Amino acid sequence: MSRIVYVNGEYLPEEQAVVSVFDRGFLMADGVYEVTSVLGGKLIDFAGHCARLNRSLGELDMARPCSDEELLAIHRELVARNGIVDGLVYLQVTRGNPGDRDFVFPDPDETKPTLVLFTQSKPGLAESPAAKTGWKVISIDDIRWGRRDIKTTQLLYPSMGKMMAKKAGADDAWLIEDGFVTEGTSNNAYIVKGGRIITRALSNDILHGITRAAVLRFASEAQMQVEERSFTIDEAKTADEAFVTSASAFVMPVVEVDGAALGDGRPGPVATRLREIYLEESLKAAV
Ligand code: PMP
User: Fold this and answer.
1) Which pLDDT value is given to residue 232?
2) Where are the alpha helices (DSSP H) in 61-191?
3) Pocket mutation for ligand 1, best pick of 54, 203, 245, 246 (most atoms within 8 Å of C-beta)
4) What is the C-alpha to C-alpha distance for residues 167 and 43, in angstroms, rounded to an integer?
5) Mean pLDDT by 10 residues, the chain (287 residues)
6) Which amino acid residue places its CA nearest to atom 3 of ligand 1?
7) pTM for the full model?
8) Which of 166, 140, 165, 132 is nearest to 255 (CA)?
9) CA–CA separation, 171 vs 190, rounded Å?
10) Is there a contact between 236 and 177 (Cβ–Cβ < 8 Å)?
11) Which end of the chain is less packed: N or C, by CB atoms within 10 Å?
12) Terminal CA-CA length for the chain
């Protein structure tokens, strides 16, 4: 059975789903996206992803393709039609197909946004073996544009960063700007020192992670100390532990930074505990 995907109001087998060559998402990366995880057939933090999508669209003067309720219904329909137990729902909105290539934005009354959603099945997503051993990260320059708070589909540099990490035998890259870590290629970055969880404060420099918001809330509720400030890669190399968060990796321990092992080189207690709390609490609130 082929995967059923959603394109502009239609549910279609993936082989039949098409987007125009003139779509601005294709020609100009003029699009935004969201990734929502599915555990036990339910959506994790859907409201958060929806709110961030609306913010991304607003920042780019892009029209909303439909209401939040309709988006939820489409997510659920795709999960059901594809029999997803554990996995992801990918959603992308672009400024649509104006029928030609032009730098000027098309008139939103004439060109409707393109809405595409598809599922990715990942059985056992929450029991990822990597969470038991942790990730190794390297550092690379952050040469992305200045509006990283908008979740755009301009993912070439993060993708190159992943390749640099892979080539170096690591799992991901942490991006460095003016000497400080901004975030991972596709996740938010944290270190732990003396029991304190340290992560960069929100600004246009980083994506406002939905998982970050939840994890910091759970950490505070569990009486853990949280410090929102920038940290250097040297500070990270001498941290007690480190981790990253994202909708698909949840809380992923980091055990090595630029070749330096953290602690005993195994996932630390804070990251391990936060992963447990995050999964437990998010599952309870899943829709
Ligand atoms: N930063 C970047 C650059 C990302 O791409 C992502 C994941 N899309 C995140 C952080 C984490 O965000 P979230 O927790 O909402 O998945």
Assistant:
1) 98
2) 68-81, 130-133, 156-167
3) 246
4) 34
5) 95 98 98 98 98 98 97 98 98 98 97 98 96 98 98 98 98 98 98 98 98 98 97 98 98 98 97 98 96
6) 186
7) 0.97
8) 132
9) 16
10) no
11) N
12) 26
Residue labelled with tokens 């936060």 = 274
Query: Looking at ligand 1, which atom is closest to the CA of residue 210?
Result: 15
Tokens 């170096």 found at: 168
Nearest to 252 by CA among 218, 217, 211: 211
Q: Determine if ligand 1 sits within 6 Å of the CB of residue 161.
A: no
Domain 130-285 - what CATH class? alpha beta
Q: 214 by DSSP, 3-state: which?
A: helix
Write out the catalytic residue numbers. Answer: 151
- pLDDT for res 110: 97
CB atoms within 10 A of CB 31: 25
Q: Is 116 in the pocket of ligand 1 (CB under 6 A)?
A: no
**Which tokens belong to 130?**
């990597």
Lookup: tokens for 172: 């991901």
Q: What is the pLDDT of residue 1?
A: 73
- The reply to whether ligand 1 has any atom less than 6 angstroms from the CB of 30 is no
CATH topology of domain 4-124: D-amino Acid Aminotransferase; Chain A, domain 1 (3.30.470)
8 Å CB contact between 196 and 231: no
* DSSP states along 47-66: HHHHHHHHHHHHHTT---SS
- Domain boundaries defined on the chain: 4-124, 130-285
Contact status, residue 173 vs residue 138, Cβ threshold 8 Å: yes
